[in-house]
């Protein structure tokens, strides 16, 4: 038997009346017979949908229990760092059972993980639960997730209620036109889980929120939805979100408290070069900017980096050989109240370096200032963990 538990009711798990019934046996046929004879309502496990269940169902096609994969629920239950302490999110979302593969311990732990998830989910807003209930039950094999949200909400998922809930969750959090365009797609089974994860991330955006690497790998649409909603300027002059979020002067004022860019130097049209350089990457374009010393180059990369981080959680990497200058710039940002810049260079102690890498992995870093000799760095199998 793999890392898969079985259960009669979710209420039994939530109230701790139900504990895993695990019997160590060398006889797989006997174990499968026992599971089938018990007619469980649910098969519960961590990563079972993609790993264990295909094998289990190949062996016992008649097993009709609704699966609940706790890996899939985790980013909804715990969208903010730190995640559930038993779940390793840096890598592939496996359970933190130990350094060796221990399927029996995994099977025992999964009850605790699900119990904690039910508790955490019950603390989310009614809108979030209504939206997630609908979105996570569009595709095949969703009866187990339906049971989870019915248990929490006490009712069935209804499309119209989900639409209203999603609109309410996105109000003021994204471009109105992109929201309208996205709403036309939410009934598609393929978009359900990515949309649920996008909403979970947007709900806690603005720091210490991270979309786990396995989500970005398995549900590529999730981060694409976030970028589409929040970082693809619709161009409408009356769009409150796009005009606010793509305006270099507003961003300068928001992050650094200045009311205007330096008046000199200017481009051929007389527009301050600083503002011009900031505007291009904010609008999604690439550019090579060259400024004389002492004319405020730092804000030219810092504002686009901070804006992207705010909108999508993106990490900007700044490569600079000047370690002293890096430290200066990070201190300057700290004075402006910006603590999301992380440095990695040869001057760091091992613990400092580890701390910097952890901040990048956990999504706490808007920019990574790194000296060239430190490249390439190993951020772990899952990358940075940001959408
Ligand atoms: Zn817009």
Question: Would you write up a description of this structure?
Answer:
The structure is a single chain. This protein is mainly α. It has 18 helices and 6 strands. It has helices at residues 10-14, 28-38, 48-59, 70-77, 103-122, 126-135, 143-153, 159-170, 176-183, 192-203, 213-218, 220-230, 240-245, 248-256, 273-282, 298-312, 323-335, 350-361; strands at residues 4-7, 42-45, 66-69, 316-319, 341-344, 367-370. Strands 1-2-3 form a 3-stranded mixed β-sheet, with helices on both faces. Helix 6 crosses helix 8. The radius of gyration is 24 Å and the shape is elongated. Residues 175, 177, 234, 236, 239, 241-242 line the site of zinc ion.
> Number of helix segments?
18
Q: Gap between N and C termini, in Å?
A: 35 Å
Main sheet, how many strands, which sense, barrel?
3 strands, mixed
* Mass-distribution shape: elongated
How are the strands of the largest sheet arranged?
1-2-3
Class from helix and strand fractions? mainly alpha
**What integer is the average pLDDT?**
86
Which stretches are low in confidence, meaning pLDDT under 50 for 5 or more residues running? 381-387
What's the order of the H and E elements? EHHEHEHHHHHHHHHHHHHEHEHE
Unique ligands: zinc ion
Strand content: 5-15%
Number of strands: 6
Rg calculated over all Cα atoms: 24 Å
Helix content: 40-55%
What is this structure's SSE topology?
Blueprint: E1 4-7, H1 10-14, H2 28-38, E2 42-45, H3 48-59, E3 66-69, H4 70-77, H5 103-122, H6 126-135, H7 143-153, H8 159-170, H9 176-183, H10 192-203, H11 213-218, H12 220-230, H13 240-245, H14 248-256, H15 273-282, H16 298-312, E4 316-319, H17 323-335, E5 341-344, H18 350-361, E6 367-370
Parallel strand pairs: 2-3, 4-6, 5-6
Antiparallel strand pairs: 1-2
The structure holds zinc ion.
């Amino acid at each position: 038997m793999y890392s898969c538990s079985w259960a009669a009711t979710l209420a039994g798990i939530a109230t701790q009346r139900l504990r895993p019934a695990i019997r160590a046996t060398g006889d797989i046929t006997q174990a499968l017979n026992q599971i089938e004879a018990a007619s469980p309502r649910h098969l519960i496990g961590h990563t079972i949908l993609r790993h264990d269940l295909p094998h289990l169902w190949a062996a016992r096609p008649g097993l009709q229990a609704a699966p609940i994969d706790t890996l899939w629920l985790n980013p909804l239950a715990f969208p903010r760092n730190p995640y559930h302490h038993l779940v390793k999110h840096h890598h592939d979302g496996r359970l933190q059972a130990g350094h060796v593969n221990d399927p029996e311990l995994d099977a025992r732990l999964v009850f605790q993980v699900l119990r904690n998830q039910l508790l955490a989910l019950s603390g989310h807003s009614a809108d979030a639960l209504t939206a997630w209930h609908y979105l996570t039950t569009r595709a095949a094999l969703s009866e187990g997730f339906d049971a989870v949200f019915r248990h929490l909400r006490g009712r069935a998922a209804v499309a119209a209620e989900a639409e209203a809930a999603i609109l309410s969750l996105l109000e003021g959090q994204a471009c109105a036109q992109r929201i309208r365009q996205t709403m036309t797609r939410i009934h598609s089974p393929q978009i359900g889980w990515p949309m649920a994860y996008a909403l979970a991330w947007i709900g806690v955006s603005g720091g210490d929120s991270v979309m786990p690497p396995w989500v970005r790998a398995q549900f590529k649409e999730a981060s694409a939805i976030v970028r589409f909603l929040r970082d693809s300027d619709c161009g409408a002059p009356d769009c409150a979100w796009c005009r606010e979020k793509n305006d270099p002067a507003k961003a300068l004022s928001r992050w650094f408290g200045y009311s205007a860019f330096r008046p000199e130097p200017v481009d051929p049209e007389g527009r301050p070069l600083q503002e011009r350089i900031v505007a291009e990457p904010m609008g999604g374009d690439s550019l090579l900017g060259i400024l004389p010393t002492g004319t405020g180059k730092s804000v030219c990369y810092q504002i686009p980096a901070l804006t992207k981080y705010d909108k999508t959680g993106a990490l900007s990497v700044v490569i600079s050989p000047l370690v002293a200058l890096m430290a200066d710039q990070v201190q300057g940002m700290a004075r402006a109240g910006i603590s999301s810049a992380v440095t990695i260079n040869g001057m760091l102690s091992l613990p400092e370096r580890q701390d910097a890498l952890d901040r990048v992995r956990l999504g706490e870093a808007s920019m990574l200032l790194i000296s060239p000799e430190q490249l390439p760095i190993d951020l772990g199998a899952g990358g940075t963990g940001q959408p």
